[in-house]
Amino acid sequence: MRTVQSLISLGISVLVLSGCGVQSVTQCTTEPEDTWLDQETFQSSLTDKGYEISEFKVTEGNCYEIYGHNQAGQKVEIYFNPVDGSIVKEEIE
Fold first, then answer.
1. Tag placement on the chain: N or C end, fewer CB within 10 Å?
2. Residue limits of the PepSY domain (predicted)?
3. What is the rounded distance in angstroms from the CA atom of residue 25 to the CA atom of residue 44?
C-alpha cells in the first residue's frame, strides 16, 4: 500500500514540476501565411506612423514582433497580428 501511495505522490510531483518550465507563447493568428500582410509594407506603415524599428521578426506564435520606439520615443516591444496589423500585446518601458 505504501508503494502505491509513493508512486502516486511521485507522479503528482512530476506533473507539477514539469509545468514549471513551460513558457507561454503569444499566439497572434492561425491563418495561413498567404493571408498575412507583406512584411516590408507592414514595417513601412509602422515607420510612417512614427515608430522607429530596431528589430523586426516573426515569432513562434505567428506574430510580427518589433523592438524599437513608439511615436512618443518610449522603448517598446509589440506583437502584431500579421493578418490585420492589430496590436496583440505591447510592452512599454
1. N
2. 13-91
3. 26
